[in-house]
Amino acid sequence: MIEFQVHGFEAATLRVSRLAEFKPDRLLTVLGSLVRSQTLRHFEQESGPAGKWAPLSPATIARKRGRQGQILSDTGRLRGSISAVVADHEVEVGTNVFYGKFHQHGTRKMKARPFLGLTDADRDEVERTVHAFMTSLIA
Question: Is the pTM of this model over 0.90?
C-alpha cells in the first residue's frame, strides 16, 4: 500500500473558491477608475495616446485675449465630463460632451488632440492592475 499526505489542500481549495466567486464587474470598475484617472492625466500633461498635443493656434490665443491656459481646458467642462461606465461585462471611458469628438479627431480647421485612449505607459499600468487584482484573488 502506498500512503501520502497532501499539505495545503485546504488553502488551495479556498483559492479556487475565490476564483469561482470572481465578479468581473469589480475588476471593470477598478479598471474604469484607472483609465479615467489616466485620461485626466492626459489633460494635465497636454498629451495623449498620439503624443504631445499641438499648441494652440494664434487665433485661439487671440480669442482667449492672450491667456493661454491649458489646452482643452478653457472652461473645464470637457475634462470634468470624463466618466467610466460599467455595463454588460465591459467598461467604457469617455465623455458625453458633444464637442469632445472634434478635439479627439480634429476637424478641417482644428488639429486633433486625442485625450481618450491608452499610451504605452497607460497599457502597462492597466496590465499591472489586472495582475495585482487577479493575484489578490488567489493570495
Answer: no
